[in-house]
Amino acid sequence: MTAIPESVNRPEQPAPEKPVRRRTVLGAYFALTKPRVIELLLVTTIPAMFLAQRGIPSPWLVVVTLIGGAMSAGSANALNCVADSDIDAVMDRTKKRPLVRYEVPRRSALIFGIVLGVVSFLVLWLGANLLAASLSTAAILFYVFVYTLVLKRRTSQNIVWGGAAGCMPVVVGWAAVTGKVEWPAIVMFGVVFLWTPPHFWSLAMKYKDDYARAGVPMLPVVATTKQVSARILAYSWATVGCTLLLFPITSWVYIALAGISGVIFLVVAQRLHNNARKGLALNPMKLFHLSNSYLTLVFVAIAVDAALTPVIG
After folding, report:
1. Which residues contact 140 (CB under 8 A, 6 or more apart)?
2. How far is CA 60 from the centre of its chain?
3. CB-based burial of residue 234 (10 Å sphere; 0-12 exposed, 13-18 middle, 19+ buried)?
4. 24: which DSSP letter?
5. Fewer CB within a 10 Å sphere, N or C end of the chain?
6. Is the confidence at residue 20, as pLDDT, over 60?
7. pLDDT tens track for 97-128
């Protein structure tokens, strides 16, 4: 009688889970600030300063504004982690955050977030001006008290209005250079404001089960895939349209870069909606990752155009 291979007799065993690597104390506090989010916010700050200066702003002012802005965003993110620690614990996407893994005491995280916010205000006030510092602090308060504590768990429009806090870095950068807020800063605010829903909703489409389990009414949780993709497409068109408002104060450099990247962004958004209408397999993360690149390209175009103004102007 032929022996049956041992591999056939033995029931398949699940692969052992990889041990979770604990962060250092410093690494845990750094993770509270959500550094990847900060990177994207700072990408919009520097170009706003270039456009406000109509050239290259003071390197010292740029450094101070970036430090103060990073600390401000880190403060808002750390306080968000404190407020959302309960839902972070049940979401796969966020279950490795420091408070969920008990790497940082909740009270310590709260103090850390508040101290970061206070120091960021002082840095921007002393290094730039009071308006920039006040706008940055207002963004922290809005993100924590309006978005995190009120909107996020109550309405599917949470990210639409709550996303306003993420638009403030462009206004802060402009104010740091000019000491006031002018219409180009409002246009750039509008670009980021309109870009936020398609960016975040594409991510939420991927993780809608996570949000549903946590009881957070993100749009993909409460609306059909077709409805979500339609809104993503509408906001994508609005975003690209808003970038056109900067044409009067920019040159062909910005027009070309913003125009080409805008077309690509719209094509991918349209494909997502077409697939949703036809009931085909979706890849919302393609749009999510592209949206990061798109926003970066638009603002890099702003900076390059402003830096070249003395040459091509």
Report:
1. 72, 75, 76, 79, 117, 120, 165
2. 26
3. middle
4. P
5. N
6. no
7. 999 999 999 999 999 999 999 999 999 999 99
